[in-house]
Amino acid sequence: DQQVKQNSPSLSVQEGRISILNCDYTNSMFDYFLWYKKYPAEGPTFLISISSIKDKNEDGRFTVFLNKSAKHLSLHIVPSQPGDSAVYFCAASGGMDSSYKLIFGSGTRLLVRP
Amino acid sequence: DAGVTQSPTHLIKTRGQQVTLRCSPKSGHDTVSWYQQALGQGPQFIFQYYEEEERQRGNFPDRFSGHQFPNYSSELNVNALLLGDSALYLCASSRGGGADEQYFGPGTRLTVT
User: Fold this and answer.
1) How many other C-beta atoms lie within 10 A of the C-beta of residue A79?
2) Which tens digits make up the pLDDT trace of A34-57?
3) For residue A46, which of B6, B100, B87, B32 has the smallest C-alpha distance?
4) CA-CA distance, B17 to B12, in Å (whole number)?
5) Which of B37, B50, B53 to mutate to test the interface with A (most CBs of A within 10 A)?
């Protein structure tokens, strides 16, 4: 049973435009959400996080939106740059079974075209 | 400031063998979590160590075991290797337990033949 889902395996965007990566979750006990970026041959790198008490968190070009009623979060990258090309994972934690672990989606491969 | 380091980088083992993977956490971190990432999938939580004890465990059999040392470094041991254990094994460190902002190492690529 996949509790965190990223339904788009890949996304291609023109440089300078907005990239929107989506993530859905099923466990209403999740209270902390994170986005990680992964380049080949490297471990995931933390990008940005959001607590369930907020609906938006911004850090430079990256903004994460959380819609708790829809159990949906998204990562916006504006403007997109070729160096942003990577695999993006969303992750969640919280609740009795998941207080110490991150539960990851399967990732979305972003390609930013010059 | 050294980040999370893992050794070895790559490893090839035969079915039935045993393997030990090692992890040193980021400076100032006292918590180590281990994840398995199969091809095309997101990382899956194996277990977390804090204060030298296993704090939480994911859906992995007892063949997977670990240890945390007083200097916070950690080992992951896998016994009786199966072909399906072939994956990237990631170590993540954080402060004070929990799941907040875990910092990942580059991983160990394990191939079981």
Assistant:
1) 14
2) 999 999 888 999 999 999 999 999
3) B100
4) 10
5) B37
